[in-house]
Each structure stands twice: as C-alpha cells, then as structure tokens.
Amino acid sequence: QLQASGGRLVQAGGSLRLSCAASGRTFSTYIMGWFRQAPGKEREFVSAISRSGVNTYYADSVKGRFTISRDNAKSTVYLQMNSLKSEDTAVYYCAARTYYSGSYYYEDEYAYWGQGTQVTVSS
Q1: 10-residue block means of pLDDT along the chain (123 residues)?
Q2: Exposed, middle or buried by CB within 10 Å (0-12, 13-18, 19+), for 15?
C-alpha cells in the first residue's frame, strides 16, 4: 500500500516536497515512480528512481527543478519540487513496479499506486 502526502496550494516559484510511504518490508525491491494528472489531461510520467536510489529519471518538463529520492529504511520516496510553475498543477501519484523493462515511462508497468495528492500552483 502506498500513501502519498504533502500536496497543497503554493505560489509560483515556490517549493514543495511530496512524500510517499509504503507499507510492508519489501520496499527496497521496488522501482518507484511519480506521475501526475492535470485537469482534463492524461496522467503523465514525472520521475522514477531505481531500487538503490542511485539512478534517477525525469520528464523533460521537470528536469532541473524536481528531485526524486528514497529512504529504504523508512520505506518512503520523496519528490522535491522547486521553481514551481502553474503548469505543475495536478494530482500527483506515486507508483511502484517490480521490474525494469527498459523504460520507466509507461504507467501500465507500475503495479501499485497511491491515492494521489493535489498540488496547486497559483500564478
């Protein structure tokens, strides 16, 4: 089970850190990802992190502004979001997958999903 939190209303240019806590004792075996869905749009990939946390991946739209990290001891993955823009407004979802297929972008390859947390960036 995944529980995302940290979403709120923030001004453009501000920062926010999302957290996603996982239950169970196998967190370190999962590749973790963040996706988002803006109103009227399809859900899109934001970022992913390897099991060890050494490798990270970002959508071009957030590269250089967002940072994904994980703490396997706390079974938690984070998304630090800086320099927020109005177009970052969306419901953010954390997700977990058990295998690497050569890409991190396809949501169908993630088996487990959190409930989503709303991020609203006011301009």
Answers
A1: 96 98 90 97 97 96 98 97 98 95 90 96 94
A2: exposed
